[in-house]
Structure formats: structure tokens, C-alpha cells
Specification:
Helices cover about 0% and strands about 20% of the residues. By secondary structure, it is mainly β. It folds into three domains: about 100 residues, no CATH class; about 60 residues, no CATH class; about 40 residues, no CATH class.
Length: about 230
């Protein structure tokens, strides 16, 4: 690609490097600019990016930035940040189409190539200590956590924004569809398994608990009464 550069010698300031590609690029050289490795760009302006890439082509299957690596001992790219405001270390914005013609697009697309690979699609961990913030948050409907995994490991589906799941898995039914549907495709169609509990659940403040003990099925209501529903 053709590369245009604005370099500020000494201390790198606003817009340390500007790269123009596609129709914005001048066809003055033979395709690209070679930087001596390791190339480093620094910026200190609060109003300009250290590096800005403008890809103006409106067709084709190329991208504004292509990063590749053949080193099996390290990542192809490192990214770190020190955000405090409501910003992600990586911020992705998909400018969609109101007519839905972008139904095949996605904010993030992951392709785990090679048959037999054991690579994980998405991996989140906290190497220093457990975190307080949620590990995963999906919000699409107003006022709801459509799916959230809290730092405690509790998971909520359809709970209110910022709410704490009332159990290890907390599902709120918000439509005529059932809160839980178990469907199978083998001879065990539609099965759900309850493992035996070591002791019956504590008294409920409302509703009740369904549990198995010794292979038998029990119901404990809000008044504390335990009813045997099915023998072992």
C-alpha cells in the first residue's frame, strides 16, 4: 500500500504517524514503506491518535490492518490499557444498516481453523486474584442483563441491570416462552438431571425448592414442608 507519513522529530506529538490507503493514498511509490524493526510510534496529544489508518476502499476483501505471526510461542498481538471511564481496552463499533442487510456481519468474528484444534474461542481469566466486575455482560433489551456472569461466578439471564443473581444460575421468565426448555435429539430426549443434595435446602421465603435426595424427588415449599414427589 502507499503510505503517507507525518513525523515529528524529537518528542512525538499529535498524530505521530498517519497512514492513508485506498483512494486516499498517492500512488507515488511501489506499494509500502519499510520501517526498521522494531518500529515504535509515540504520541502524547490528548486530541490526536498516535497512529491513524484510513482505508477508503469500498469494495474488495482486504482490511485496513492485517497482523500475522508464525511464532507459536507468543501472541500475534498484545494490547493493554489503563481505562477508568466507561471505555473498553478494545472498543469495537459496527456501523450497521437499518434495513438489516448486514445480517451476516458481527462485531467480533472468530474462526478456529484446522480440524482437531483444541484452541479456546473466548478465554477470560484473572491471574492476580478474583475480580469484582462482571466477566461477561450482554445487553440488548432495555433495562435487562440478557446474559451476565458476575465476578462471583453467578450467572443471570434476563435479570435487571446491575442486579445480583439469586443463585448460581438465575433465570427470569419475561415472555410466554418457558424460562427453561430442555430438548434432546437422542433416546434421552428432554431429560434434565438433578444430582443428590447432601442436605435439604434451607427454608424458602416464597416459592419452593425442587431437589433430589437418595434418588427420590422432593419439593420443599415456602412453609418448610417437604413433600415426596417420586420414589427412588
Amino acid at each position: 500500500m502507499t503510505v503517507g507519513r507525518r513525523l515529528f522529530l524529537g518528542a512525538f506529538t499529535a498524530g505521530a504517524v498517519t497512514v492513508a490507503t485506498g483512494s486516499e493514498a498517492a500512488a507515488a511509490d511501489d506499494g509500502y514503506t519499510q520501517y526498521a524493526a522494531p518500529a515504535a510510534f509515540y504520541g502524547a496529544s490528548p486530541t490526536e491518535y498516535a497512529v491513524k489508518i484510513n482505508y477508503a476502499a469500498t469494495s474488495g476483501d482486504k482490511a485496513a490492518l492485517n497482523v500475522t505471526s508464525v511464532n507459536p510461542e507468543s501472541s500475534a498481538m498484545y494490547l493493554s490499557g489503563a481505562e477508568r471511564a466507561q471505555r473498553g481496552t478494545l472498543k469495537i463499533t459496527h456501523n450497521g444498516y437499518a434495513d438489516g442487510s448486514d445480517h451476516g456481519a458481527s462485531g467480533i468474528s472468530i474462526n478456529l481453523r484446522t480440524e482437531g484444534t483444541a484452541a479456546q474461542g473466548i478465554f477470560v481469566t484473572a491471574t492476580d486474584a478474583p475480580t469484582k466486575g462482571a466477566l461477561i455482560v450482554l445487553r440488548n433489551n432495555p433495562g435487562l442483563e440478557d446474559f451476565v456472569v458476575k465476578g462471583s461466578g453467578r450467572t443471570g439471564i434476563g435479570i435487571g441491570i446491575g442486579a445480583t443473581p439469586g443463585g448460581q444460575l438465575h433465570v427470569v421468565q419475561r415472555s410466554e416462552a418457558p424460562a427453561l426448555l430442555v430438548e434432546g435429539t437422542t433416546r434421552l430426549d428432554g431429560t434434565a438431571r438433578l444430582d443428590d443434595v447432601a442436605a435439604e435446602p434451607a427454608k424458602e421465603q416464597g416459592g419452593g425448592s425442587l431437589f433430589a435426595r437418595g434418588g427420590a424427588l422432593y419439593w420443599k415449599g415456602g412453609n418448610g414442608k417437604v413433600t415426596l414427589l417420586a420414589q427412588a
